[in-house]
Write a structure and sequence with these properties.
280 residues, mainly alpha, 13 helices, 67% helix, BamD
Length: 280
C-alpha cells in the first residue's frame, strides 16, 4: 500500500512549487498548457503529468520513458529531481529491480536531503526484499534486504516506512532461519553431526525471535544424544522446556530423555519422515 501511495504523496508538493496556470488534472498535476508539435505538452510539467497518468494506468514502461524525458530535456526544472524517483518507482513496479536499485542509489547519493528521501530508502529496501529466494537457494539477497530494511528503521524510526520495514525484517529473519534449518536437517540425515549442530546453534543464537527455535533445540538434543553428550542434551532440552513448555518439540525431546515417556501423538511423523515430506 505504501509503495502504491507514492504518486499521491509526491505530486502535490511538486505542483505547489512549480510555475503553472492554476488548472489541475485528475491526478493533481498541472495541466498541459503548451502543446508540442505532436499535440503533447513537452514542457517539464506536461511530461511529468503524462508520466503520472501512465503510472495510474499501470503503463509502467511508458511512465519510465516520460520521467526519463523530464530528466533529459529539463534537467534544471523543479520536476527533474522527482522524476528520478518516479522513474525508479516505475522500474520497481515493472519488477526490474536491478534498474530500480541503480536509480535509487543515484537519487540517494545526489539528493540526501530531499523531502522524500525516506521513501527512496524504503523503496530501495523493497527492491531487495522482492528478490528474496526460497530457502533452497542462496540467501545473499535476503541478507541485503535485511541490511536495507534495518537502514530504513534506523534512519527514519518514527515513519510508516520504518514500521513496515520492521515487519518485513521479522519475515526475512524467519526466512534466513528456515534456510539454516534446511541445511542443518540435511547434515543431520548425512550424519554430519558437527556441521548440523553449527546450523542449529546459529538458529538458537541469532534468530531467537523466529518460530524455528523450538525445533532447533530439539534437533540439538537429538544430536547430543547421538554423540553421547547426555548432559548437554539434558541442558538443551531444559532450555526448550523452560521457554516452550507446550511445544510438541519439547514432548519429543522429553521422550528421548525419560524412559517410558511418550512423545507427541502417534501419527506425528518421525524425523526421517518429516525431512522426506519437506522435500517431496
Amino acid at each position: 500500500m505504501l509503495r502504491r501511495l507514492l504518486p499521491l504523496i509526491l505530486i502535490l508538493p511538486i505542483a505547489a512549487c512549480s510555475a503553472w496556470d492554476g488548472r489541475m488534472n485528475s491526478l493533481g498535476s498541472p495541466r498541459a498548457s503548451t502543446p508540442g508539435a505532436s499535440g503533447q505538452d513537452s514542457s517539464a510539467e506536461g511530461l511529468y503529468a503524462q508520466g503520472m497518468e501512465a503510472l495510474t494506468a499501470e503503463r509502467y514502461q511508458r511512465a519510465v520513458e516520460l520521467f526519463d524525458m523530464v530528466e533529459r530535456e529539463h534537467p534544471y526544472s523543479t520536476f527533474a529531481t522527482n522524476a528520478k524517483l518516479m522513474s525508479a518507482y516505475g522500474e520497481y513496479m515493472r519488477n526490474r529491480y536491478t534498474e530500480a536499485l541503480g536509480a535509487l542509489d543515484r537519487f540517494i547519493q545526489l539528493h540526501p536531503a530531499h523531502r522524500d528521501i525516506a521513501y527512496a530508502y524504503y523503496l530501495r529496501a523493497l527492491s531487495y526484499y522482492e528478490q528474496i529466494n526460497d530457502i533452497q537457494r542462496d540467501q545473499r539477497t535476503t541478507e541485503q534486504a535485511m541490511a536495507a530494511l534495518q537502514d530504513v528503521s534506523n534512519r527514519f524510526p518514527n515513519t510508516p516506512y520504518a514500521r513496515d520495514a520492521r515487519l518485513k525484517m521479522d519475515l526475512a529473519r524467519d526466512h534466513l532461519a528456515g534456510r539454516e534449518m534446511t541445511i542443518g536437517r540435511f547434515y543431520q540425515t548425512r550424519r554430519l553431526h558437527t556441521a548440523a549442530i553449527g546450523r542449529f546453534r546459529r538458529v538458537v543464537d541469532e534468530f531467537q525471535t523466529t518460530n524455528h527455535v523450538p525445533e532447533a533445540l530439539h534437533r540439538l538434543t537429538e544430536l547430543y544424544l547421538t554423540m553421547g553428550l547426555v548432559d548437554e542434551a539434558r541442558r538443551t532440552a531444559a532450555v526448550l522446556g523452560h521457554n516452550y513448555p507446550g511445544s510438541p518439540w519439547y514432548q519429543d525431546s522429553y521422550a528421548l530423555l525419560v524412559d517410558g515417556a511418550e512423545g507427541t501423538e502417534p501419527n506425528r511423523p518421525g524425523f526421517f519422515s518429516r525431512v522426506v515430506g519437506s522435500i517431496f
